[in-house]
Each structure stands twice: as C-alpha cells, then as structure tokens.
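Severity: low
Component: inverse-folding endpoint
Summary: output formatting inconsistent between runs
Steps to reproduce: submit the following structure tokens with default settings.
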C-alpha cells in the first residue's frame, strides 16, 4: 500500500519517514522494545471518536456507553470513563473491569453509567451489578426478569430495567453478528414487550425505566438504526400511555467502520448516524443511551507481527507470521478482511501474491489469502490494521501461546498497557 493510501482512511496509522507510525510514533521501535505480536492503539483516536458521538448528540440528554467487549483493556476503559462515557457490559467480568478501571474513588460513579446487556446473566452476575448500583439492566427474556426481580428483592436493592426488544429489522452485515431479526436469540419480540412490561407494573423491586434495542454489528447503513429506534419510540409512547415512567431509550451499538481501502470519514458517518437517531426520536423526551464498541476502538488499533518464514508450496507463497488466529481471530471466524501493511516502507518494492498465515496448527489460521503485498522477507514487520476492536478481547491461549502485549499511544507518548503473559501465569490455575 502506498503511503498516500492512508489519507482519508480514517486510521491513525500513517507513514512517517520510512516507516508506519501510530499517531506519530514509529512502530519499529515499539516492536523492538516490547516484542511481537504486539497490539498498538491510538488513544488519541479513541478519545476523538468518543468525542464525535458526544458532540453529535449535544443538546439531547445522552450517555455514550462504550461496549466493553470490543476492547476491554483497563487503560482504554479508564480513558473513556474519564471522558464521561458509560459502559455496556455483558458479564460480571466486564463489570469487575469497569470497577478496576475506575478505582475505588470513582467506582460508584462510573457504575452509575453502566448498562448490563446479554441473554444469559447468572444470579451471581445480577447480584454483583445490583450491589454496584448500575444504571440499567437490559433484560432479554421474561425468565431473566423474574430472576432479576427475585434477586433485587433478596438483596433489598431496586433494579431499573429496560426490555431489549427485537425489532425484526434487517441490517446488512455478517450473519454471525446480525442480531435484530426474530430468528436470532436476542431480545424479546417487540410485539410481546408491552405485555411483559404490564406483568411487572407494580412490582416493588423492579422498575421499568427504559426500552433497549441492538440490531447487530458492523452495520454501515444508518437506515436500519433509524427503523429500529422508530419502533422503539412507538413502544415507549404506548408504555407511557400505560402509565410507565420510561426515561431511557437505549439504541445499542453496531455502527460499522471501513476495513478496506476505501475512503472513510468517521465524523460524517457519526453525524449521519446521529441524524438518523434524532429523526427517529423526534420530540420524544428521553435520555438516549448508545453502545458503540467497534467504532471507537476498531481503526485505532493494529496488530504488529514479525515474519518468521516465507515458503512456497507449489503455486502458493506463504508468509508465516508470529501472530496467529489466537491473537486475532476475525479472519478465521468471519472471513473478515484486514489490511496488511509492511512497517518498513521500501520504495519501489516488487509486489507478489501471498497467503499470510500464523503458526497455529489449523488451516483456518490465516490473515489473508491471495493478497498482493510488497515482497517480504524473514524478520520483516507487518501491521494488521483495524484490529483494535474484537482483537485482543477475542484472543485465546490456543496452542499454549502467550497473548500479545498492548501499547497505547496518547499525545505522542507510547505506554505499555498490558505486558506479555508468562507460562507460569498460564499454568497457575492448573493442578497435576
Ligand atoms: N451492544 C450490544 C448489546 C452488543 O451485543 C454489541 C456487540 C455492542 C453493543 C457493540 O457493537 P459494536 O458497536 O462494536 O458493533 N466479534 C464480532 C462483533 C460481535 C459484536 C457483538 N455485540 C466482530 O469481530 O466483528
């Protein structure tokens, strides 16, 4: 890829001098200092993206609840929490992360901006969230609401809830990450929601405070968001007519980014998204919650890796990297495309068509197939772009591989935010 290929790409990675940099910091030195595979994120871009959403909804009561699952690094949670963001969590572990990132003095306050989503909350997780005093439970089934009510009563802590409704809206995305159709496991059919709210009308321990929706992830069109919020707004009006004090509309996350070479204007995309939600909400007085994950952190991150070997098998040339599917599983799991860029830019390098693969013993362990890249040699550094979302958070220790270290670049300064694991840590929970 030419240096000029990054302009207008929406990425904080650009060529400076003869190498690829993250917000001005060279990746070669980071790879030398911290080793590879290494995740490098631009904290500047994450902050800038969060600000885009906050500004786009200025003038309307709202909270940006960052979807922790996209990248749950404590340092990133800290950065976003300090900007006033809330958090969308889906497990007790993510709640514990928010509390750890906040620190004891701010934990209570930050938990007051937490929404808890997910179809399978356990009693222990519900209890922890009740104790932490979270803002809202996004409840996905009648039986979950019954359990929430029972736990709230037992703990003597009233729970605010929203039903996550399934609006039956189709959004163009990968089938594994589409959620808004009635065929999916998520939410409660919107047509049935009113009756479920009615069952819990005068409950002493659960209070209907909102309606929530989430139609899927990596959605590039804004119309499906508008269509789903339109349906939510109609339900909110009905519920208010039924006497419920519905204060929160949670529009979910899902706004997509550019993974390819096309130009991408993040600011324009956020304003289109905000316009779509504003026009669906019209004059409805409600506190808007949104749960962006990927849009905040996806393009901000790259996975830096070293070429271990190159080899030819028949017609094919393989570039074998020290990163593998356990570090970044998106290509293997979703056939996702990630741009791959050599860290050192060699002027006039010849191009060749290669498969970029990892060392894991699975044919699915690839980052790119038949990709045209500048000729690569053993020892070269590569950057897999747009790996900030669902990269490390979806990583594993498969093949007993240590997961990558992580570096956050803010204001021209690079900081290690997660050191590489050790084998001792990996084996610590085991007994022979
Ligand atoms: N809210 C809820 C309830 C969610 O389930 C999700 C993502 C989000 C918010 C954030 O969505 P985002 O803004 O990041 O699109 N591993 C897949 C993506 C799975 C998304 C799951 N839910 C990937 O790598 O593409």
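Observed output (run 2 of 3):
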């Amino acid at each position: 890829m030419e240096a000029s290929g990054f302009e207008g790409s929406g990425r904080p990675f650009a060529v400076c001098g003869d190498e690829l940099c993250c917000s001005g910091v060279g990746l070669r030195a980071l790879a030398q200092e911290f080793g590879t595979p290494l995740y490098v994120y631009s904290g500047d871009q994450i902050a800038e993206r969060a600000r885009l959403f906050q500004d786009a909804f200025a003038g309307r009561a709202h909270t940006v609840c960052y979807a922790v699952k996209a990248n749950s690094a404590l340092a990133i949670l800290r950065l976003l929490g300090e900007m006033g963001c809330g958090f969308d969590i889906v497990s007790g572990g993510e709640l514990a992360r928010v509390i750890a990132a906040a620190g004891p003095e701010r934990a209570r306050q930050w938990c007051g901006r937490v929404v808890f989503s997910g179809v399978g909350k356990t009693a222990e997780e519900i209890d922890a969230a009740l104790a932490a005093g979270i803002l809202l439970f996004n409840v996905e089934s009648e039986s979950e609401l019954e359990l929430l009510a029972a736990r709230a009563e037992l703990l003597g802590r009233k729970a605010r809830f929203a039903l996550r409704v399934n609006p039956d809206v189709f959004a163009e995305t990968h089938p594994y990450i589409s959620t808004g159709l009635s065929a999916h496991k998520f939410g409660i059919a919107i047509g049935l929601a009113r009756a479920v709210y009615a069952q819990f009308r005068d409950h002493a321990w659960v209070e209907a405070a909102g309606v929530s929706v989430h139609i899927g992830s990596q959605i590039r069109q804004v119309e499906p968001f508008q269509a789903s919020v339109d349906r939510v707004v109609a339900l909110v009006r009905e519920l208010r007519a039924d006497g419920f004090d519905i204060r929160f509309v949670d529009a979910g996350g899902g706004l997509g980014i550019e993974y390819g070479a096309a130009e991408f204007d993040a600011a324009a995309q956020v304003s289109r998204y905000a316009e779509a939600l504003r026009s669906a909400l019209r004059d409805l007085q409600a506190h808007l919650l949104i749960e962006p994950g990927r849009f905040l952190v996806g393009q901000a991150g790259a996975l830096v890796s070293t070429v271990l070997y190159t080899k030819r098998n028949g017609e094919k040339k393989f570039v074998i990297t020290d990163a593998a599917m356990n570090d970044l599983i998106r290509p293997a799991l979703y056939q996702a495309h990630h741009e791959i860029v050599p860290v050192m830019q060699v002027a006039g390098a010849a191009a060749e068509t290669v498969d970029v693969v990892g060392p894991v013993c699975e044919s699915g362990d690839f980052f790119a197939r038949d990709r045209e890249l500048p000729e690569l040699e053993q020892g070269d550094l590569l950057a897999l772009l747009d790996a900030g979302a669902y990269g490390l958070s979806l990583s594993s220790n498969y093949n007993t591989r240590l997961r990558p270290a992580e570096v956050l670049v803010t204001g021209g300064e690079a900081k290690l935010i997660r050191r590489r694991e050790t084998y001792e840590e990996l084996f610590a929970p085991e007994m022979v």
